[in-house]
Amino acid sequence: MQEHMRDSITVEFADVCIRVPATEVDRVKSALSKFLELAGVQHSIPGDDEDLVTWEEAFPGLGPGDILQGARDREGLTQTELAKRIGVKPHHISEMEKGKRSIGKDMARRLAKALNTGYKVFL
């Protein structure tokens, strides 16, 4: 289960905490470190001497449209299928995914219900 992000200790960086089973700590640290290295992201894992990075720094440009597309793909839905589920035209889904149409609170709730996720990820 994820914990809330703590306040940033510097302007450039923030700490991100996750909770994993104690028996998996070393494996998770190793996997995260390898992932961030492959992504070319400066990082540190507690116990390392490097600076930590925020998720925004690790994934620059990730926005609500990207989250929407990922959630839709995860559920195996086409834009047309999702549009039918929430009662909008398919091009509205396309525009939201491309960032050309904003996702308001009501739409976020409808999307969340159809995509089995929390609505705040789309805001």
SSE succession: HHHHHH
Continuous helix count? 6
* Structural class designation: mainly alpha
Amino- and carboxy-terminal Cα gap:
21 Å
How many domains comprise the coordinates? 2
pLDDT averaged over residues: 81
- Radius of gyration, taken over Cα atoms and rounded to an integer in Å: 17 Å
**C-alpha geometry:** elongated
Detail the poorly predicted runs.
Answer: 1-9
Q: Based on DSSP secondary structure assignment, what is the total number of beta strands?
A: 0
Into which percentage range does the β-strand content fall? under 5%
Write the layout of secondary structure elements.
Layout: H1 25-38, H2 55-58, H3 64-74, H4 79-86, H5 90-98, H6 105-115
Helix pairs in contact: 3-5, 4-5
Task: Describe what this molecule looks like in 3D.
With 123 residues, the protein is an all-alpha fold. Helix 3 packs across helix 5 and helix 4 (79-86) packs across helix 5 (90-98). It has two domains: 1-60, no CATH class; 64-122, lambda repressor-like DNA-binding domains (434 Repressor (Amino-terminal Domain), Orthogonal Bundle). The protein is elongated and about 45 Å long. The chain has helices at 25-38, 55-58, 64-74, 79-86, 90-98, 105-115.
